[in-house]
Amino acid sequence: MNVDDALAKVHLAPDDDAAKLVAADVLLEAKDPRGEFIALQFKDWRGEAEKEDRTRVAALLSKHWDRWLGPLAEVVEPDSVVFEKGFLRECRLVEGACAPSVIETWNKAPALREMRELGVPDLDAAELIRLLERPSLQHLLGPRLLSGRALQALATRETPWPFTSFGVRGTAKALVSSAVILATGQAFVRLKRLSLSLERFGRSAVAELLKGLTKYQLHERFDALHVETMNNDSGALGYTLTALSRFAPHAVVSVEHPHLSGRLVPGDAGPEVVIRGGAIASHVFDFVRAFDVPRASFTLHQSGGALPGESELDALRNDLRRLKPRRAVFPAAWGVVDV
Question: CATH for 253-339, among 3.30.750, 3.40.50, 3.30.1120, 1.20.120?
Answer without folding.
Answer: 3.30.750
